[in-house]
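cron nightly-structures :: item 1 of 1
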Amino acid sequence: MKIINWGFIFGTMLLMSFGYDGDTIKPDRQWSQYRGNFACGILDHANLPDSWSVPEGKNIKWKVGIPGLGLSCPVIWGDNLFITTAISSKDTTRFRIGLYGDVAPVMDSSEHEWKVYCYNKANGSIKWERTACKGVPKIRRHPKSTHANTSIATDGKHVVAFFGSEGLYCYDMQGDLKWKADFGVLKSVFYLFIGAEWEFASSPILYDNVVIVQCDVFQSSFVAALDAETGKELWRANRDELPGWCTPNIYLDRGKARVAVNGYKHRGAYDFKTGEEIWKMSGGGDIPIPTPIVGDSLIFMNSAHGASYPIMAISNEAKGDITLKDQQTSSEFVKWYLPKAGSYMATMLLYNNYLYNLNWNGSVNCYEARTGKEVYKNKLGQSKSFTGSPVASDGKIYIVDDEGTVYVFKAGPEFSLLSTNPLGDICMTTPAITDNLIFFRTMKFLIAVGK
């Protein structure tokens, strides 16, 4: 009689459901950087719960406290979850949420420790922690900012943490430091008032064994590529650009990798191998923050501050200076352009042919991705402040407001709110999704939600 080993079969199915295939981890099932694979913000077939409550303990797998302050989002590879934080015994000022125009930084000159944490994503236990550096921050922070804003980037071999003026650090998966790079003081300030220091916030990305960093600062802005194994600088492209807080992205143009960057004076793309400028475009919000989103042979960008707040869809075959003329809303490479639709903080979500844009006040606009036609506009809840960006899984979209309420609504051409879920703490970061779990980094905690 043939004996069936149901334990082995079930165990194999479980491993595969968590992004494993034998001894191989599936890279496209990992949340390997800010907003996941290519910053798309999507992981389907994740089997997430429809509702939960942290105060009631409903569908909460685990919850652990995080010392210090950080706005880095959770990043996942295999059973590892990474975050960063900056710890000071004196800088105890918490986030000041809400909508306000105060540009003054937090006046603190205490010594900080910049740390990288690796957790076991299944139970929240710490696998390792490392102190990248200690000292007085070289740039002050905004009241809604921290000294650890950028998310980790990993490819399963390297763990890259960027702390702006405090340096770029690369560890292996066991937490051993491989190399570090110092770019000097990166002046992340409001360009109209350089005393308004707001700290660095552009996360690194990893692609094909290369680290890409975008450093748009008050002086000497640049984009650079470094060898992930050694830290050697492969190329650097200087930029005539105002300070910005955008994370770059990668897209393909007829098989060739390009680095897409948002910006005000110099939105555009660079050749991934050489750093050669491929295309550029000016205009938009003069404090750019959102990350470019790619898909369906298009690059979607938005920004908002000052007189202009556009959303645009650009062909991945764009080249040269494609800046639009006055009143122009399309061209050979600009497929569509909405001059008054962009958002200040949030990166957009491209999901099943629809483009979702979240405004700072919780207003969600849904557009046809190919045409830019508005499908609907809806306001989420009563909160006046949303900082994190939307993510999606299995036909549902997840958005968290600064007060810590997560809104889950149905993806598609008709808005349908499915649930509202309290986290019990301030939350200004974007969630991370893995199989069967969604993670939230709040002001004080790291929270795992699952059935």
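cron nightly-structures :: done
Confidence is low (pLDDT under 50) at residues 1-18.
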